[in-house]
Design goal:
This protein is α/β, with parallel strands linked by helices. Helices cover about 40% and strands about 20% of the residues. β1 and β2 form a beta hairpin. α3 (about 110-125) crosses α10 (about 285-295).
Length: about 300
């Protein structure tokens, strides 16, 4: 009997990644970069071409497709905000995906949520908080092995938890969101302000290694904000572990340890701090999570 084929798709602002598995075996893995931005219709046509090429390569029907999506999607399945590709705002995502894969079961979820699902499976932890610290801050929560709040109920937007009422303005229109304080660009802006001159990522890394005060203070504030957000989640739902990933976090030596130190400083009697560890899957977490979602909807 032929094994069922499951497809994971990670739709990003600059590229799209695919992975097909039959059973536990990867049978196809590919990616493409979006053409210069024109319209959602042009993007969907480009996506359809690559899906067609993928079908030709695997020469087998797909049982289920899981899609990781970074934009905000309303309960009706329509994209309401995607800063990286605003041309997609208003697109009926649900309808568009089902048109691409008419023969398969299809589901989509936030890329941070699916990153958390994949990291939970990889670490063997069914109650896990995941933070992805990069250009923005994404993340997800898995409780008893399932995504929280769950499919169709919105995403786990920890990047828009307010950690400083008088903090920096966020792209969402509020002030003091975790993303506005602890993302990679936010950290670099703060570093430049403290330095009195622009600071690149490499300059920040080098200055941090040298112990220069402007770099240390900029990163400490980032880690303090991350710890505050984690502490709030811990008080509400009590995950067992915190994993931190994302390109910015992975590139700053010692960031995970600093978050752990600040979290310990926020502990209260009877509530020991959560263990904080680096994420295991790196940039693959959302794609692997999309595959896990496909297997979940149609084993």
């Amino acid at each position: 009997m032929e094994k069922a084929h499951h497809l994971g798709v990670d739709i990003g602002g600059t590229k799209v990644a695919f992975r097909v598995e039959a059973g536990a075996e990867c049978v196809d893995e590919s990616a493409f970069r979006w053409d210069p931005r024109h319209s959602a219709a042009r993007d969907l046509a480009q996506l359809a071409r690559h899906v067609g090429e993928l079908r030709t390569r695997i020469a087998a029907p797909l049982r289920a497709v899981g899609v990781a999506m970074p934009g905000t999607v309303d309960p009706a399945g329509r994209i309401t905000a995607w800063p990286s590709r605003p041309e997609w705002n208003g697109l009926a995502l649900d309808e568009s995906l089902r048109a691409l894969f008419p023969e398969a079961a299809v589901a989509w979820a936030d890329d941070g949520d699916l990153g958390a699902l994949a990291e939970a499976r990889a670490s063997g932890c069914d109650d896990l908080l995941y933070l992805g610290v990069g250009t923005g801050i994404g993340g997800g929560l898995v409780l008893r092995g399932a995504l929280c709040p769950g499919l169709g109920r919105g995403s786990f937007e920890i990047g828009h938890v307010i950690v400083d009422m008088g903090g920096a303005p966020c792209v969402c229109g509020r002030r003091g969101c975790l993303q506005a304080i602890a993302s990679g660009p936010a950290t670099l802006r703060r570093a430049a302000h403290l330095r009195g001159a622009p600071a690149t990522f490499e300059e920040l890394r080098r200055a941090l290694h040298e112990g220069q005060p402007w770099a240390v203070t900029a990163v400490e504030e980032t880690c303090r904000a991350l710890a505050a957000a984690v502490s709030g989640v811990q008080e509400l739902v009590h995950p067992q572990r915190v994993l931190i990933g994302g390109g910015f976090a992975a590139g700053i030596p010692g960031l995970v340890g600093l978050v752990s130190d600040h979290l310990a400083g926020l502990a209260r009697p009877g509530q020991p701090p959560l263990p904080v560890e680096p994420a295991a899957l790196g940039g693959l977490s959302s794609l692997r999570g999309a595959l896990a979602l496909a297997r979940q909807i149609a084993p």
